[in-house]
Amino acid sequence: MDHARPSVGQHNIGGYNWVRMHGRKSEAQEFYDIFYASQTPLWEGCENDTKLSIILEALSFKSNYNMSQGCFNRVAQYVGNMLAKNNQMFSNFYEARMLVRKLGLGCLEIDCFQKKMHDVL
Fold it and tell me: CA nearest 95: which of 68, 55, 62?
């Protein structure tokens, strides 16, 4: 923040909005989106969770407990309605996934039913 000025939180650094002419976000803008999400409290006054931390925790629940996308979306809406007004809770799986995708982490999907019996032996 000392070098980039406080405007880094508004994604408007030096008057340039970091969006290329074709509408595709640059890697720098994606970094600032993640940085902003990691610094934004879930609601004003919340000291324990940020927008990014709650998304990562919820995606971990989805993976660990094999939640369907519909269930994930419904839980996100329910929790969002319980929180204080003007909260930063994500509203669905797509929104959560799009933010986490900016981290550049890959995803490995394993289909255990595609293996043939002779591959196992």
Answer: 55
